[in-house]
Amino acid sequence: MNFGVLVFPGSNCDIDCFKAVEETLQQPVEYVWHTETNLSKYDCLIVPGGFSYGDYLRCGAIARFTNVMRALPEEADKGKLVLGICNGFQILLEAGLLPGAMLRNRTLKFRCHPARLRVESAETPFTRDYGEGEIITIPIAHGEGNYYCDEATLAELRKNRQIVFTYAGENPNDSVAGIAGICNRQGNVLGMMPHPERATDRLLGSEDGRRLFTSILNTWRERHGAAVVG
Amino acid sequence: MLKASVYVTIKESVLDPQGQAVKGALHSLGFREVAGVRIGKYMEIALDTDDRAQAEERIRAMCEKLLANTVIEDYRFELEGPER
Predict the structure, then answer these.
(1) In angstroms, what separates the C-alpha of B71 from chain A's closest C-alpha?
(2) Which range marks the domain in which residue B19 is found?
(3) Which residues in chain B are closer than 8 Å to A103, comparing Cβ atoms?
(4) Is the ipTM of this structure higher than 0.90?
């Protein structure tokens, strides 16, 4: 399974994502500079966290017009898996691949600490190795993770089971319905504020993020008739 | 040359955390009459054209595509420059 980690000027979690794939899955992974126009060789594309284009104007607003982000929807339409983490989630929202938008955290604070999450849906390609309703610990690190959507959109998200992660306990940013991560209607594009790539080893404080990566690989293997691990 | 002044603000229906914080600060400074604060962005855009009608259309497109996120923000703009 081929992984591509998109890199924009200002990305700073690209290496963490690369290492998470390399060490958790031992699968081929490459960095993809934002000027690339062809993403057809990758089976999964990760849009990493950071401060693409300095967060100028709005988080993710400028990155969405790069070549890689113009090429991404075509791959998503083919059913390939797309994972946006933190700034990557913001970019997917700005690109319209996921509904809603991000506001500043209600407290105006940059929150950087482990967060307890509830796995709301274990039926997505990204969460199949978790239990439904399971509580996991994954770190957050953001100033603009206050997810917003209108009532009609929230009802749609609920109806289609697109809410994948919520904050269990304290809502660190005051996001609508405690949302920490959502997927598109087809389920192959996931955006989440917490950083699973920073929770892949006990030395990092948690290894609860590993199963997000193993879920991706197992989904791909199942689709391609290969043996499922774990 | 025309100059566009573009104002982008968070929609009335959406909470503006920065505006809330500034309102609290103004209250603590004794400006009790402050009933609400909304914080936005102001952009000056110089346009290399004298065609106001076209400029208006182009600025609107810029706002829709990039300058504002219409899920959470409203925009308005004014054009300054030679009248026809």
Answers:
(1) 6
(2) 2-80
(3) 10, 14-15, 17, 72
(4) no
